[in-house]
Give the backbone structure.
Amino acid sequence: MTNLTRALLPAVSLFLACSHRTPRTAPETTNTPPGTVLTADDIRRSPGQSLEQLLLARVPGLTLTRAPDGHAVLHFRGTNTFLGDDEPLVVVNDIALAPNPGNLKAIDTHDIETVQVFRDAAATAAYGVRGANGVILIRTKQN
């Protein structure tokens, strides 16, 4: 036995005596809440309303202003980004649309399967800076 082994042996045995094993359990997963969800049934129950009107009725904190050309501009309460654009990101079938006030007007409500609205950082993290103002995720019916 070397001097180094003799010096470390008491420390290792003390460590082993003090440590104990606790049974491992599966880590708790933190699922982000789905946000606000509109389904095709919800849309069908509100005939004659545009997607903007449906979102205003169902999403808390969502406001609508009109651009000078008459298009609707959606905002969540508060300013969430340092970039000039403060509209939420609109994603249709996993394709992010360019910021344009008429994006939601161009989508036929009869073609929509689900609309999910995300506002918190955990849910919008996958979209990076573009999702800082929230994300409106639209899935259309696939024929």
Observations:
- The CA atoms of residues 65 and 73 lie 5 Å apart.
